[in-house]
Amino acid sequence: MNKTSWIRLYYEHITVPTSYIFVFIIGLGANGWVLKSLLQKRKKLGHINVFLLNLGLANFLFLPTLPFLSAYYFMRSKWIFGDAFCKITRFCFNLNLYGSIGFLTCISVYRYLVIVHPIMVMGRITVTHSVVISVMVWLLVSVQSLPDMFFTKKFKNETGKCYDTTSSEYIEDYLKYSVGWTLTGFVIPFCILLGCYGHVTLVLCRKKNINKVVKERSLKLLFILILIFSVCYIPYHIFKNLNLYSRILIKKNRRPRKWDEGVFSAHQISRGLVCLNSVLNPLVYLHVKDIPAQLRQLLRRCRQTFYFRTASQTESTEV
Fold first, then answer.
1. Where is pLDDT greater, at 1 or 99?
2. Does residue 318 lie within any of the structural domains?
3. Owning domain of residue 150
4. Does 309 fall in a domain?
5. Taking CA atoms, which of 127, 139, 213, 272 is between 20 and 30 Å from 250?
């Protein structure tokens, strides 16, 4: 076995399935605990908890498929569960990935509005709004992921394969689709998240009347989100598209050998890391499970100040 074959064997058939097993065990327990906690208080489910509930559901759509994918890679890429189930598992992966990104973005926007514009949103954001937004996120993610199911997951007349992208026959079209998907499903939400938390950080640092606990919790949440995106999402999208481009060069017999090996290895590692989002997402629940009591007190103070100023202006006008 040459060096290239060994690298491909190690990363694709050992690293990836091993990480899947780890994520399945830890993720199932962590997300089960989150969903149980949220459903226990479903009668008083707050608007931000609606997003957390959907975040947990996105993880649960994907986690049951991991044992099948692990078996596939441990058996040297031999898929024995049928073509239809192959496409379903890949579709569930995409729903989890882009659904998680969507709901993390919704949580970030909500925190931004509550902290930066508390008076403007007071009483205007309801559970119904959160439910409608969640439905829209699921629809958008489904529409983005649906074309992937129409790309073949194996070569013609080939059995026992379940590619995560598509065969080399359609690789050029898939790269175009993947780049557009990356922009709409990852880059735009990531820019929104960075904008929201960049402004939130400035506000938290400048305002002295915000409780210390609120500041710490918000900054910890920012750290967790940056960790999730840096470890799980950014490497995956970069190396997925680079690997697709590398495969096009291979198809045209123009591949730089060492570059191809490096991109392939990095892509396989990123595929293992991207699944860690199902383990890291429950950490978000610990920091945004509800608006802290201190933040509610701050909102009441803002409202009282607003009413006091309004009353003062009215009195001055009358005089």
1. 99
2. no
3. 3-302
4. no
5. 272
